[in-house]
Structures are given as C-alpha cells and as structure tokens.
Amino acid sequence: MAGETPRYDPSAMLPAHRAFVVHFGTTRRRRSRFTGRVEHLASGTSTRFASLRALLAFFARLLDGPRDP
Q1: Cβ(36)–Cβ(49) under 8 Å?
Q2: CA-only gyration radius of the chain, Å
Q3: What does the alpha-carbon distance between residue 22 and residue 35 come to, in Å, rounded to a whole number?
Q4: 65 contacts 51 by C-beta, under 8 angstroms
Q5: In this structure, how many other beta carbons lie within 10 angstroms of the beta carbon of residue 34?
Q6: What are the CA-CA distances from residue 16 to residues 6, 13, 19, 29, 48 (Å)?
Q7: CA distances from residue 3 to 6, 10 in whole angstroms, order as listed
Q8: With bands split at pLDDT 50, 70 and 90, how would you rate the model's confidence at 69?
Q9: Mean pLDDT rounded to a whole number for the chain
C-alpha cells in the first residue's frame, strides 16, 4: 500500500551471531506444537526441543552467554 513503511528493512543490520535456524517437527498431539530442532548458526550448537519453553531457553542461553571479543 502506498505511503506505508515496510515492516522489513533489508538494509537493517542483522548480526550473524544472533542468527538461528529452527526446524519445526510435526506431531498429532495438540499440546506439543513446539517440537523440532534449532541450530545457532555462528557456533553450530544445536539441540532438539519439545516445548516452546525449551526453544526459548536455548535462545536465551546462547544470546546471554559470553561472547568472544
């Protein structure tokens, strides 16, 4: 639409050390929607998760952890 500011700005800086790939699995159980595998691209660290809480904990652990200078 004319005059609207785009939500995605391709010129915005997106630091690679904060990039993840999340692959969601499929399940027949409704309560387990958040299952799959996540990988932190900069470090190669990956894990499987079976809940939203576990996925978010992985993000927090890697984003809040010590960084190389």
Answers
A1: yes
A2: 16
A3: 10
A4: no
A5: 17
A6: 22, 9, 5, 34, 21
A7: 9, 18
A8: very low
A9: 83
Q: Is the pLDDT of residue 58 over 80?
A: yes
Beta bridge partner(s), residue 21: 39
Q: Which residues are within 8 A (CB) of 17 and not within 5 positions of it... i.e. 6 or more apart?
A: 42, 67
The residue whose two tokens read 């004319």 is 2
| DSSP for residue 62 | H
What pTM value is reported for the model? 0.70
**3-state secondary structure string across 9-56:** CCCCCCCHHHCEEEEECCCCCHHHCCCEEEEECCCCCEEEECCHHHHH
Average pLDDT for residues 45-64, to the nearest whole number?
94
Q: For position 19, what pLDDT does the model report?
A: 92
